[in-house]
């Protein structure tokens, strides 16, 4: 008898040194809840770390809605290129507000506007290098 898998799909994002700032920003502005944050210094093998890497994030976890976003600081990490975290909003006002926050200091690929498939839609990369799609369908 084959047992069916029931995995959960979570997302893991690497940052080049600002994972903590990104997660704290998402917690404050996107209604997320940080459930875990560990620095490299808290690693049992921390004695071998370079001094400038001790406060880097080894592993962090934040719950945003029903999704878990995990992350870490990785030297030479690059901004997200081919994947987007997608936020779906119940109202156009929530979408617009989040767009304003995430776009500040970031790069806009498609400005917030009405499309044939959504009331409000935008694509951007925030100041932390995370790529987002924002969507309000009604």
Describe it.
- With 138 residues, this protein is of the alpha/beta class.
- It has two domains: 1-77, 2,3-Dihydroxybiphenyl 1,2-Dioxygenase, domain 1; 79-138, 2-Layer Sandwich (Signal recognition particle alu RNA binding heterodimer, srp9/1).
- The protein is built from two helices and eight strands.
- The protein has helices at 19-30, 92-103; strands at residues 11-15, 33-39, 57-64, 67-73, 85-88, 107-113, 120-125, 131-136.
- The strands form two sheets. It has a four-stranded mixed sheet, with helices on one face. Strands 5-8-7-6 form a four-stranded mixed sheet, with helices on one face.
- Strand 3 and strand 4 form a beta hairpin.
- The N and C termini lie far apart (44 Å).
- The mean pLDDT is 92.
What string gives the helices and strands in order? EHEEEEHEEE
Global outline: globular
CATH class of the largest domain: Alpha Beta
N/C terminus separation: 44 Å
The overall pLDDT, averaged over residues, is: 92
What is the percent of helical residues?
10-25%
CATH fold description of the largest domain: 2,3-Dihydroxybiphenyl 1,2-Dioxygenase, domain 1
Query: What proportion of the residues form beta strands (DSSP E)?
Result: 35-45%
Structural class: alpha/beta
Overall number of strands: 8
The number of helices is: 2
Given as residue ranges, the uncertain stretches (5+ residues, pLDDT < 50) are none
Major β-sheet annotation = 4 strands, mixed
Compute the number of structural domains. Answer: 2
Name given to the CATH homologous superfamily of the largest domain? 2,3-Dihydroxybiphenyl 1,2-Dioxygenase, domain 1
- Give the strand order, joined by hyphens, for the main sheet: 1-4-3-2
Instruction: State Rg.
Output: 17 Å
Q: Architecture of the largest domain, CATH level 2?
A: Roll
Domain Glyoxalase/fosfomycin resistance/dioxygenase: 15-133
Pfam families: Glyoxalase (PF00903)
Organism: Flavisolibacter ginsenosidimutans
InterPro entries: Glyas_Bleomycin-R_OHBP_Dase, Glyas_Fos-R_dOase_dom, PhnB-like
